[in-house]
């Protein structure tokens, strides 16, 4: 019987692109046999900013039922797959704020020895997807986490072309998440589950 693994998919999304990928990643992880928690980072933006963008307001309403992430989700997880839109080539404040609440767990060593991976979206093809994922991964090094990026480990990666993590170019919100991004998400998620299983089983055998 394969080693049971817990995967937390933790994301922030304003207008729904990243949440669509997050839902796909959660399904893919389930299909790969993992226990899954899909969790969103809490909103920080003022209501006026949200209301000024109909797509943002609508997405906030549509995802009201998705639980907000808590530090306990990090403790529960054997693997964490983070998702964030690109903000000036960087991680969103909302996801970063959650990461910044984890100092106590970091200090206790509770975030180490887990598998981590990430995905993103941006308006433009060279708008900072790689820098966003690399910035996200800085935190993983501090956790003592084990990064499992997709690399070019599957032929589909030569189509989607981002070895750092699944990335979607959303245009002005008019390029929906479709097969290329969904394939990249599946390949990355299956790889995360596979290595999480192997690492968990290996560590259990060591101890
Ligand atoms: C404040 C802000 C900064 C952004 N910075 C970038 C950027 O650096 N490069 C880019 O291509 N898109 C940028 N975008 C666009 C978003 O990354 C893009 O629309 C993304 O797909 C939104 O994901 P979501 O629908 O999950 O919120 C920015 C958007 C906002 C609101």
SS-based structural class? alpha/beta
Report how far the terminal alpha carbons are from each other.
20 Å
Mean pLDDT: 97
User: What ligands are attached or bound here?
Assistant: flavin mononucleotide
Largest sheet: 6 strands, parallel
What is the ordering of alpha helices and beta strands?
A: EHEHHHEHHEHEHEH
Number of H- or I-type helical stretches = 9
- Can you give the helix content as a percent range? 40-55%
Give the strand content. Answer: 15-25%
Low-confidence stretches: none
Number of strands: 6
- The geometry reads as globular
How many whole angstroms does the radius of gyration measure?
Answer: 16 Å
How do the strands and helices of this protein lay out in sequence?
Layout (H helix, E strand, L loop, with lengths): L5 E6 L5 H15 L3 E6 L6 H5 L2 H9 L8 H6 L2 E7 L7 H7 L3 H5 L7 E8 L6 H15 L2 E2 L9 H4 L6 E3 L9 H28 L1
Parallel strand pairs: 1-2, 1-3, 3-4, 4-5, 4-6
Bound molecules: flavin mononucleotide.
The site of flavin mononucleotide has 18 residues, from helix 1 and strand 4.
């Amino acid at each position: 019987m394969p080693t049971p693994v817990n995967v937390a998919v933790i994301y922030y999304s304003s207008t729904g692109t990243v949440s669509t990928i997050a839902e796909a990643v959660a399904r893919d992880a389930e299909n790969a046999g993992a226990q899954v928690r899909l969790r969103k980072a809490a909103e920080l933006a003022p209501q006026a900013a949200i209301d000024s963008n109909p797509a943002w307001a609508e997405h906030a309403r549509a995802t009201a039922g998705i639980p907000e992430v808590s530090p306990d989700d990090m403790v529960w997880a054997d693997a964490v797959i983070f998702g964030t839109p690109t903000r000036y080539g960087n991680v969103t404040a909302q996801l970063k704020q959650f990461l910044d609440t984890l100092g106590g767990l970091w200090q206790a060593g509770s975030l180490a020895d887990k598998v981590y991976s990430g995905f993103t979206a941006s308006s433009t093809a060279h708008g900072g997807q790689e820098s966003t994922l690399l910035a996200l991964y800085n935190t993983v090094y501090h956790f003592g986490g084990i990064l499992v990026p997709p690399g070019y480990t599957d032929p589909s990666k030569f189509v989607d072309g981002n070895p750092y993590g699944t990335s979607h170019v959303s245009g002005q919100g008019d390029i929906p998440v479709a097969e290329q991004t969904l394939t990249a998400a599946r390949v990355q998620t299956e790889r995360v589950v596979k290595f999480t299983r192997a690492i968990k089983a290996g560590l259990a055998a060591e101890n």
